[in-house]
Please model this.
Amino acid sequence: MSDQTPHDPRFDNAGATDESLLSAHERELGKKPADNGHYKMLPLVLLFVFSGLIFFAGTYLNEFSGHFDPSVFDEHGKPAQPGAATAAVDPLVLGKRNYDQTCATCHQINGQGVAGIYPPLDGAEWVTGSPERLVHILVYGLKGPVMVKGTEYNAAAMPAFGRVAGSGYNWTDERIAATLTYIRQAWSNQAGPITAEEVAAIRTKEGDRKEMTQEELLQLP
Ligand code: HEC
Model:
């Protein structure tokens, strides 16, 4: 084969034959590229992606697994008996929570008030007496001298709790009714409940107004 190809003096002098050149090329082409002893690293970003996924999965399970309780979501479960889920919140439970969290700051948990500043609710005629007067006190607040259990109080004002202009609380009629129902039977008190409808009726009839005074309350039935 080398006999048919015309001689090139440059290759002749190099002492290389076609065969040796071909095999030399073959050797070179078959070689893996030099890597200087390093291997390619997994892209660092994948490490973050996977750590992120594991963290997300853990958080998700923790939040939404429902502790793997079958009653949390059971697509084959039977619907509850009609009426079972409609049991209303006990107004006394709701009322006690409202009272303990808000009213007790001034009137105290035991309803005794603070001598000379906050009048007592336990055994107070305003609490166990006329529902109309009591609703007015809660919805609109009370200011000026007021006689409670034979002692006059006039040191501070009772804030308005109703959904009326100037009230910082804006409690719903249900919430007011529940709280009043609670204080009317708490401690030594034994008066009947007050409904949200009664509160709504009084609030709608009276509209927006400033705090009540004792004189105005006494004119109510
Ligand atoms: C910031 C303190 C404060 C908070 C909170 C407060 N009150 Fe009063 N309350 C007063 C003061 C002061 C009076 C007396 C006002 C006066 O002297 O005219 C009063 C008076 C009353 C009265 C009429 C007087 C009596 O003792 O019977 C009732 C009823 C009453 N508050 C119920 C409540 C209820 C229920 C709550 C919670 C929803 C509540 N108060 C939250 C300060 C407060």
Summary: The radius of gyration is 43 Å. The chain has a mean pLDDT of 87. The CA atoms of residues 90 and 178 lie 8 Å apart.
